[in-house]
Amino acid sequence: MLRASSSSTGARVPPAHLQCEVVESASHVLIGCIATPPMNVDAKTFLFQLLNTPSPSGFEAAGQKVWLTYVRQFADSVQSDAYGNAWATLRGTKNSFSLLLEAHADEIGFMVQNISDDGFLSVVRTGGSDRAIARGKRVNLLGDQGPVLGVVGNTAVHLRNGDSD
Q: What is the pTM of this model?
């Protein structure tokens, strides 16, 4: 995926399955690449593992660990920092560019604010999600004793109290 090879001139070029376009301006060089073949089994397994690893805003470390472990095989270096950032770098040569792969890493999440006597949870959003998208969604509640499956309920329209529901 990210591993470059050397051409007959010694310059590093993207793998054959990437179609790349270079756009240059006075101050920037943009390189856009599109992968052309279908996903192989390892890549698909990685994608599903990444998608199924909880990584809500503020708790992205588990998902980043999955990503770093997988991308390490394609990069010259992988790094992370105390601010929750993780990145992989494919170094260029003297006559070519280095490639840095970065992306948004967290997912929509909520934190339990209160548990009622009836067992209902009141939650607050982590990150910047729209409250309306959660209604009716299945969720995994992450606790000390493992995940608990749940569903986000919705207060009936005639029972709502302004913006608090």
A: 0.63
